[in-house]
TrEMBL record:
Pfam families: IL34. One of its GO terms (cellular component) is extracellular space. One of its GO terms (molecular function) is macrophage colony-stimulating factor receptor binding. The gene is Il34. This is IL34 protein.
């Protein structure tokens, strides 16, 4: 993964990986790969819990859920949503390589999060993560671009201060 991303031999940390994700999730790229290269009004079937919006994060913050637990939730939701998008793409699709690169970044970020166990996060977040990995949840149709828009918005909410990206 590191060779593909052109990084140094040292494994990048959480902030560096989220910076790389932010670069890959630029508006123009999301628009081109997740909207223009898909049929008009194309949607992907995702679990209800795979749609994580900034309002969900605000609600959980108001319930005193820790930032680490919220990042853990964001990672699981976003990586699951990326897998849903990648599942519908044949290898020759113009968006396949882009989604593959995003999945590789999420895989690398997953290694950073592997040191955290579900028992270390609040019960509400652990329950949501369990729902994500179960097949029993309700499904809804969502546009691929909307999934990545939410991914970026929530990432900006959760990583703004610790990574000091200078967003204003």
């Amino acid at each position: 993964v590191l060779a593909v991303l052109g990084l140094e031999a040292a494994a990048p940390g959480e902030c560096e990986l989220t910076r790389l994700l932010q670069d890959k999730l630029q508006y123009e790229m999301r628009l081109q790969y997740m909207k223009h290269y898909f049929p008009i009004d194309y949607t992907v079937q995702v679990q209800y819990e795979e749609v994580l919006r900034p309002s969900n994060i605000t609600h959980l913050r108001n319930r005193a859920v820790s930032e680490m637990a919220l990042r853990y939730l964001w990672f699981h939701v976003s990586s699951q949503a990326m897998l849903r998008i990648r599942e519908v793409l044949p290898e020759k699709h113009p968006s396949w390589r882009y989604t593959q690169e995003l999945c590789q970044l999420f895989d690398a970020l997953g290694k950073e999060y592997s040191k955290y166990r579900q028992t270390d996060v609040e019960a509400v977040v652990a329950d949501l993560v369990k729902l994500l990995h179960s097949a029993e949840s309700r499904r809804k149709a969502v546009r691929p671009k909307a999934l990545l828009d939410n991914c970026l918005k929530v990432m900006r909410m959760l990583y703004r201060a610790p990574c000091e990206w200078g967003w204003g």
